[in-house]
C-alpha cells in the first residue's frame, strides 16, 4: 500500500438522476468545508480517452453531511451571467457551460470570489477561447459575475487556477493551465497569472512549466496546477509552498485519432515570491484504482495537524477522497 495516501472507498457525491458524471469540487472554508460547488456534466459527446470529446456543464451547489459525503443541490445562480457571456461570444463560438470552480475567500472583506473556466469552443478548433471567469458576493447565494479576470490570448487560454499567497512585492503570482501549440501538437503548460487585484484585470506571465522541456513521463504532455498546501501542513522553505500538480502522459496517435495518456496527481514546489516552479516530482503520487485515464485533483482540506483530505475526480465522472499524511509525503519530497 502507498503510505503517502489512503484512497477512500465509495464516492464523495451521491448520485443524481440528472447527472451521470460530476467532477471538480470546491468548498467554502467559512462553513467548515461543508458547502461548496461542483461541476456537473449535462451531456457528453465522445470518449474522455480520445481527443475531441465535448462535455457540457453546469455548476451546482453541494452540501456535506461530512467531509466524505455531499449531496448535489440546485444549479448555481449567478447574477449577470447571461449579460457577461453574451459580450464574450463571437461568431462561430459555442458556450458549453461553466467549468472547474475555485472558491477563494478574501480575509479582509470576507467576500467570496468564485473563479471558473469559461469555455467558448469552435468544433473546427480554429478559434477556441478559454477565459478564466469570475464572480463575487457574500456567499454562493449572492454571487454576481464580472468580466473574466483573465482573457485568452493568442497563445492560449486560462483554466485550473492555483492561487498563491501575496509576495513581498504586494501582488500574487497565481498559476493557471494554458496552451502552447507546437507543430500539430498542443501542450498544456503552466503559466503565471499576475494579480494585483483578485477581482479584475490579471495579466499573463511567462510559462513556468512546459512538459516538453522536462523528461518526466507521467507529465510528458499536459500539466495543470492544483491546490497548494499551507506551510503548516508541509514546510518546504521561506517563500515556497508544496502543492499538487495534475499531469498527463504524452498523447498517442493511433491512425487519424489522438488518444490521451494517463492523467495522474503528482507534487511540485512553488517559489511564489519569484513565480518559479523549483521542482516537479519524477513520479506521480496518486492514480486512482478505478481510473481508466484520469485522476485529477481539485480541492485540499487540512483536517488535523499533518493530516488532510484531497479531492479528485476520476475519468471526469465521479469524485473521490484521499487521506494524505504530511510526514510520509515530506520524506518523499526531501528525497529530491
Provide structural commentary.
A hairpin with a 6-residue loop joins strand 9 (129-137) and strand 10 (144-145). The protein is mostly beta strands. The chain is built from 2 helices and 23 strands. The protein is 5% helix and 49% strand. It has helices at 81-88, 326-334, and strands at residues 5-7, 21-27, 35-45, 54-66, 69-75, 94-95, 99-105, 112-121, 129-137, 144-145, 159-162, 172-182, 185-195, 203-209, 222-228, 240-248, 252-254, 257-259, 263-271, 276-280, 295-304, 307-314, 318-325. The model has no long low-confidence stretch (mean pLDDT 93).
How would you briefly describe this protein structure?
With about 325 residues, the chain is mainly beta. The chain contains two helices and 23 strands.
Descriptive terms for the model:
49% strand; single chain; 5% helix; 2 helices; 5-stranded antiparallel sheet
| Fraction of residues in helix | under 10%
Distance between the termini: 21 Å
Oligomerization state:
single chain
Gyration radius, in Å = 19 Å
- Please count the helical segments: 2
Biggest sheet details: 5 strands, antiparallel
- Name the average pLDDT: 93
Quick one: how many beta strands?
A: 23
Structural category? mainly beta
How big a fraction of the residues is strand?
over 45%
Order of helices and strands: EEEEEHEEEEEEEEEEEEEEEEEEH
Tell me, briefly, the overall form: globular
pLDDT < 50 stretches = none
